[in-house]
Amino acid sequence: MPTAVSTHSLSHNFDTPRGAVTALRGVALAIERGSFFGLFGPNGAGKSTLIRILSTLIIPTGGTASVAGYDVVREADKVRASIGLVSANENSFYGRLSGRQNLEFFAALQNIVPAIARRRAAELLEMFGLAYAADSHFQSYSTGMRQRLNVARALLHDPPVLFLDEPTKGMDIATAEKVRALLRREFVERQGKTVWLTTHDLDEMETMCDRVAILEHGSIRASGSPAELIRQASATVEYRLELSNMPPDFLSTMRALPGVQSAELVSHSDAATVLDLTFADASPSAELWQTLACDGVVVKRYAPKDEGLRMLMKNGGGDFTAHQPRNESPHR
Ligand SMILES: Nc1ncnc2c1ncn2[C@@H]1O[C@H](COP(=O)(O)OP(=O)(O)OP(=O)(O)O)[C@@H](O)[C@H]1O
Ligand SMILES: [Mg+2]
User: Fold this and answer.
1) Per the structure, how many domains does the chain have?
2) What gap in Å lies between CA 43 and CA 272, rounded to an integer?
3) What's the gap in Å between 44 CA and the centre of ligand 1?
4) Burial of 105 by CB count in 10 Å (0-12 exposed, 13-18 middle, 19+ buried)?
5) Which of 178, 198, 231 is the last residue of a domain?
6) Are residues 268 and 307 in contact, defined by beta-carbon separation less than 8 angstroms?
């Protein structure tokens, strides 16, 4: 399957008066043509930076990326002709022109001949439920109507790839659902376009996307189908354990315990041994506490290895200490 978007070791640093800010760190992604892809991640993760690089608005400071088969730096014109871009809070429509006039104006800027522009504008206004307001001034449009016009504009030149940065922000739930369904059914399934959606909305991701990636601090934290990621996030918790006096065979004992998915040695010295443990759920079994409490094992530190996929996806609490049996606590 040919890729619509691919990135290799893509990195980006912003120069600021207070020094460099790293927004992306070696992002590698491959998105199939004709698929609906969702990029999910907390504020500041780098989602908009990635979309801005892919739509040629900024040049990456490291790595490469291609869209519709064209390199985003060397073939930027061809990339631009192949994409539509929708950013949240877009504010470049003309208030005193109607929705229709705005679309026809932006079509002219893209050298679309007037007859085709008229037909295309009318078609898109209809599809996005704006036909009734086509001839009203843009300034009379609500936030949700503006956002829909914004998506319609990105499709004027019929691009094979569409980038949407939080497109349903400002839409009410019912409107957002309609827009999503339209994007999915009409543009992805019927027309075979590739849609890249950036979102904070777990429902949006789950119901719309074929594949999802989670970006955290500029790196891809996980990727897969929404169901796979949700399963992974609700099913595993990683902890880092620092202990002294590790008995022989301790690792294999740990691995054999119910609920322990993996136990890996990170480092070992006379002073301390560091292990990474992955549990199948948030509350490790009583056997685990017994194993940690015996054989003179002294646990120095027992903490979540990182924020955890679960926390990232806000899929239930990840406070391990809440599950820790008091009198079997290894922290003494
Ligand atoms: N023009 C800029 N100059 C300096 N730093 C920037 C610039 N744009 C983004 N950043 C920084 O890069 C990082 C990634 O920002 P980005 O806007 O890509 O995140 P995001 O995932 O889109 O977040 P949000 O969910 O809030 O939209 C942040 O640390 C941000 O402060
Ligand atoms: Mg953003």
Assistant:
1) 2
2) 36
3) 5
4) middle
5) 231
6) no
- Global confidence as pTM: 0.76
Pocket around ligand 1 at a 6 A CB cut-off: 14, 16, 21, 23, 41, 43-49
Q: Which atom of ligand 1 has the smallest separation from the CA of 88?
A: 27
For residues 141 and 270, membership in a common domain is answered with: no
Q: Are 44 and 185 members of one domain?
A: yes
Residue of the CA atom closest to atom 26 of ligand 1? 43
Final residue in a domain of this structure, among 231, 248, 271: 231
* 200 & 286 share domain: no
Tens-place pLDDT, residues 39-97: 988 888 999 999 999 999 999 999 999 999 999 999 999 999 999 999 876 678 999 99
Nearest CA to ligand 1 atom 14: 46
CA of 167 to the centre of ligand 2 (A): 11
322 vs 107: which has the higher pLDDT: 107
Which domain does 62 fall in, by range? Answer: 3-231
Compute the distance from residue 42 Cα to the ligand 2 centre, in Å.
Answer: 9
- Going by C-beta distance under 8 Å and a sequence separation of 6 or more, which residues neighbour residue 135? 98, 99, 100
Residue 322 and residue 196 share a domain: no
- CA-nearest residue for atom 18, ligand 1, is 46
- The C-alpha atoms of residue 289 and residue 285 are separated, in whole angstroms, by 7
Whether 90 and 150 have beta carbons less than 8 Å apart is answered as yes
Could you report the per-residue pLDDT of 222-264, keeping only the tens digit for each? 898 888 887 776 656 677 778 777 777 888 888 888 778 788 8
Q: Looking up tokens 């040695």, which residue turns up?
A: 265
Q: Which two tokens stand for residue 230?
A: 């949700």
Q: Are residues 216 and 242 in the same domain?
A: no
Protein residue with least CA distance to atom 31, ligand 1: 44
- Give the β-pairing of 36-40 and 194-199: parallel
